[in-house]
Amino acid sequence: MSPPDILALGRELMDTLAMGWSRAKVDEIMSVFGEEAVFLETPFSSPLVGTAAIRRWWADVPYHQSEITVSTGEIFAVGPWFSTEFKAVFRRRRTGEWVEAWGAIFCETGGGKVTEMRMYWHRRPGTGTR
Questions:
Q1: Structural domain for 13, as ranges
Q2: CA–CA separation, 104 and 77 (whole Å)
Q3: Number of separate domains in the chain
Q4: At the N or C end, where does the chain have fewer CB atoms within 10 A?
Q5: Is the pLDDT of residue 34 over 80?
Q6: Residue 115: closest CA among 107, 104, 126
Q7: Is the pLDDT of residue 124 over 80?
Q8: What is the pTM of this model?
Q9: Could you tell me if 72 and 10 are in contact, meaning their C-beta atoms sit under 8 angstroms apart?
Q10: Distance CA 130, CA 123 (A)
Q11: Per residue in 83-100, pLDDT tens?
């Protein structure tokens, strides 16, 4: 794919991810991943390989986060990779505490899907009021 195509694909995939996360819709989130995708939540976490493992990680979102708003920034692309920044604001279901998370997402693509996603983010409890 040429860079403009990766930019458009990255925008489409990140818009879908952000919408799915904001709605706590795991199927919508999972629609961006290829079957053998690799997901790293942080640089220090173990990679999750395959959609079953990735789905288990994202399946916690509806149980632990509410009133979720996710936004993503400009897409930057090089070869099959794209990146963007993101912001997620949510309320913890158990405590009612607001959380604001800022970070960056780096994705490799293949076949119109994410084949590898690396997230680098920091959560700040108590700062995410809307």
A1: 3-125
A2: 13
A3: 1
A4: C
A5: yes
A6: 107
A7: no
A8: 0.91
A9: no
A10: 15
A11: 999 999 999 999 999 999
Question: Which CATH number fits the domain that encloses residue 73?
Answer: 3.10.450.50
121 is a domain residue: yes
Q: How many CB atoms lie within 10 A of CB 29?
A: 22
Percent of the chain with pLDDT over 70: 94
**HSE, side-chain direction, 13 A CA sphere, residue 31:** 14
Token pair in block for residue 98: 């607001």
Asked if residue 130 is part of any domain, the answer here is no
Mean pLDDT, all residues of the chain: 93
Burial of 25 (0-12, 13-18, 19+ CB in 10 A): middle
The C-alpha angle 16, 12, 46, rounded to 5 degrees, equals 60
Q: Is residue 35 a part of any domain in this protein?
A: yes
| Count, residues in the chain | 130
Whether 111 maps to a domain, the answer reads yes
